[in-house]
Amino acid sequence: MNRAVAAGAVQRDVGQQPVLRVRLPLERKPDLVAQAWDYFKNVQTKDKKYVPFVRTEDKPAIWLNQQTMAKYRDQMKKFYYDPTKYNTYLEQLGIQYPTVRTQ
Questions:
Q1: HEC string of 1-68?
Q2: With 90 as the cut, is the pLDDT of residue 73 above it?
């Protein structure tokens, strides 16, 4: 293993440590999670309401792709999943999963 790969593995592990230091105590104490949600909902975001940018009456702009879809729709049909013939989409594409590589 070269040094760059080894250093990358060490950096990745060091980066995960702070996440684990927060996550593990939370997983071991479900009441702490409930308290955290309570604090988030009733203190931090008490006066804030989520306002989505997309309204419920907004429709997707499908007309922008009309020419492209007209051109390629027939070519795409062979990639549509057919559950009557195959158990999975990967099987339909001829992909063996999980892939085990030999050296």
A1: CCHHHHHHHHHHHHHHHHHHHHHHHHHHCHHHHHHHHHHHHHHHCCCCCCCCCCCCCCCCCHHHHHHH
A2: yes
